[in-house]
Amino acid sequence: MNISGNILINGQWLAGADSTFNAANPATGAKSAESFSNADLAQVDSAVEAAATAFETYSQYSDVKKATFLRTIAEELENIRPDIVERGTWETALPEMRINGELGRTIGQLGMFAQLLEKGDWKRPVIDQAQPDRAPLPKPDLRLTQVPLGPVVVFSASNFPLAFSVAGGDTASALAAGCPVIVKTHSAHPATSELVAGAILKAIVKCDVPKAVFAMIHGSGRIIGTALVKHAKVKAVGFTGSIAGGRALYNAAVSRPEPIPFFGELGSTNPVFLLAASLEQKAEQIAESFLASLMMGVGQFCTSPGMLIAVKGPAFDRLLATLAEKTPTLGAGSMLTAGICDSYNKLCAKRDAISSLKSIAKGAAADSSASQAQVALFSIDATDYLANLDLEEEVFGPSTLVIGCDSEAQMLEVATSMKGHLTGAIFAQEQDHSSAAKLLPILQQRIGRVLFDGYGTGVELSSAMSHGGPYPSSSASQTTSVGTRAIERFTRPLCYQNTPDALLPVELQNANPNGIMRLVNDKWSDKAIG
Ligand code: NAP
Hints:
This protein has helices at about 40-60, 65-80, 80-90, 95-120, 170-175, 190-205, 220-230, 245-255, 275-295, 315-325, 340-350, 380-385, 410-415, 435-445, and strands at about 5-10, 10-15, 20-25, 30-35, 125-130, 140-150, 150-155, 180-185, 215, 235-240, 260-265, 270-275, 305-310, 335, 360, 370-375, 375-380, 400-405, 420-425, 445-450, 490-495, 520, 525. Helix 2 packs across helix 6 (about 190-205) and helix 9 (about 275-295) packs parallel to helix 10 (about 315-325). The mean pLDDT is about 95. The strands form 6 sheets. It has a 7-stranded mixed beta sheet with strand order 15-17-18-13-12-19-20, sandwiched between helices. It has 2 domains: about 40-265 and about 480-490, Aldehyde Dehydrogenase, Chain A, domain 1 (3-Layer(aba) Sandwich), CATH 3.40.605; about 270-450, Aldehyde Dehydrogenase, Chain A, domain 2 (3-Layer(aba) Sandwich), CATH 3.40.309. It has 14 helices and 23 strands. It is an alpha/beta fold. NADP nicotinamide-adenine-dinucleotide phosphate binds next to helix 7 and helix 8.
């Protein structure tokens, strides 16, 4: 499929008016035949202005109409699956099976939001009917719903080139909420981004949606990304990337004359706690499953397990011995970009230089010309760890830190020292439940998803999912970026008081024409009201 290298604004493919760049294959260093053009500030302005105009129409779309649009995007993506898989694999060095699976997930996310819209009750309408005779004052009629915020800027992630990128979860949830989207692409996969944007444009045309409901822009984060976040007509931001990048853009979002919500999914080290009986019974098995989780996507999952914590003793020694035995057999893998590989190598070298850290083992040697990462496992005593809490920071890639504690009390101290993480895992047998019960309240304050006897890699699409967590794992811990509740990031509550029935949005009207579940005078009901 032909790649233009252009940006997409208001339904038109345009040459970006700034510099150009080429895509790169991280495994070979080869550059793409096509060059891609970066937008300038005037193009940023025109994309946002057009999106703000499109919002006037799109924000009034019925849920059913938006659902049809999302389903059509999904169909258009499916139609070009082979092209996306070919380009995505070339640009990211991720295996074909992974890109195929991630495309399935992206299509699944669009379908999940379409289904939510079709169900019709996602705004959780609340109706408190008037009590004109209440003393001493009459009670007014109050009706609560959700309304979309306005144009949303979405920053693509490098490590999920589809599911957290152009048509990923942020885009799907913002479009479902009724918000136009302007995507700032990630330079690690521009051709994949263009293919996906082309599928969205086809759906726009097929469904006769205002063209500026979606735009795709290439450009530097510092200049173009910041300008998008600061544009007065942008009303929210969805971001997936590093803590440093997310923090810079968060600061820009909240220091505007009109601050806006910034939903940043940032970095996380995802601690794994091994409790005594579990470790005793399964040390070798846990070591192997841990390595399998760490190796997913060359350690480039935001949910990758970066810390393993247990009490020292013979079972802990068996764990270390198995890790030391198996790790050298693990191959080096190409990372997403040469830059990401470079920063991984620097962080591992920094760890090599810390005297209290011991190297457990390293994987097969890496070929630097192929941007490969060598697996690197370190261990440290908890006392030394507690004196060097910077070690909690994410090392993006296949490295992990095993922390050996003197006692269960020290393990709890390590947990208490932690900041926010996306996931926290506990391996526990029934005999460990009293220890787990002490650990859980500590993790409750620090973790977005607590899981037992497994690892956080693999984030299920579900209405019960939470993908986020206290800072720095995300910048907005009260929300999730995965699952149906992600839609609520891009809406706000609106209360209608004493509003004539005919002027109310359909979900609040007395007749309840769509038969949806509502909280009426504090009781759930799907019936019409008088
Ligand atoms: P990144 O370097 O932060 O890049 C992400 C985006 O931010 C890019 O568009 C980049 O633009 C922009 N950016 C970076 N620094 C900026 C700055 N100072 N000012 C303005 N914009 C800036 O992240 P990445 O390397 O692509 O992704 C890896 C990170 O994402 C890892 O830390 C990983 O854990 C995290 N991640 C988190 C989740 C989650 O759900 N929590 C999911 C996936 C990934 P330029 O390209 O122009 O620099």
